[in-house]
Specification:
The chain has 271 residues and is an alpha/beta fold. It has helices spanning 12-19, 107-114, 157-173, 192-204, 220-237, 254-265; strands at residues 2-6, 24-25, 31-37, 43-50, 78-83, 95-101, 133-139, 142-146, 177-185, 208-213, 241-245. The longest helix has 18 residues, at 220-237. Residues 101, 103-109, 149, 213-214, 216-217, 247-249 line the site of guanosine-5'-diphosphate.
Length: 271
Amino acid sequence: MTVFGSGDLPPARNRATRAGGQASLGGDGTGVCLNRSRPESGSFIYQFRPLSSMRNPNDTTYISTGAVPTAGRWRGVRFLYSVNALAQLPPDTGREVAFAGRSNAGKSSAINLLTSQRQLARVSKTPGRTQLLNFFLVEPDRYLVDLPGYGYARVPDSIRRHWGELLERYLTGRAALRGLLLLMDIRHPLTDMDRQLLDGCAARELPAHILLTKADKLSRGAALAALAQLKRRLATNYPGASAQLFSALTSQGIGEAHARLDGWLGYREEP
Ligand code: GDP
């Protein structure tokens, strides 16, 4: 599909990468902009391919992104597909950030807030997808990956083993993975599984950033004290990990979380 649009040239620092064509989400979020050129008329030509055509993870025919920051980038994030086996992962060439946390920690609410979309993460909770790695497309070669929430006793052992293995192999072997955003309810931080994940990150020197969620549940003083205590524990055991307060209810911490994601995805210098 080709549609025509017009507009000003993008910011100077991105002109070089954009001049040769680049990929980004279409304005209506239904497709990926494959190429852009500027004919004599002054209009841009965009070629779109519907997202549904990208569901084959081995299809790498789209042009890699020039990593162009735009205000609407997060609002344009779309669910791409679910992965149940390593072979289904997209090519290990881009940048991605994984979201992990105990069930009910507030992971879905955080993803929805960070993308300014009320329902985006609901897909990760639909039957059949709860134990899968759910990929969300920021731009081609830029993904958010929603990992299964842990802590549910009712998952059959065979499934738990399968996803445990999948998760471990993904976390240890995925080169595109630039960071782990780990969500913990501020009232119950550092569960056993949280620590296992932080151990895994430390083992491969993968940066981890903790969102202490539901900070609105505590008074400001108590929330700051909980953060300070967590930071002390991290400094001792996980010096590669950082932490902040977060609330999906009040949007507290959204800027700091975006900055971290932007850094890991290559949109700005890492904080
Ligand atoms: P998930 O299972 O980790 O995806 O957790 P959800 O995002 O579904 O949240 C679990 C529950 O916690 C829901 O009832 C949310 O409304 C609530 N919740 C999530 N984030 C916050 C928050 O920042 N503040 C408050 N007060 N409640 C929250």
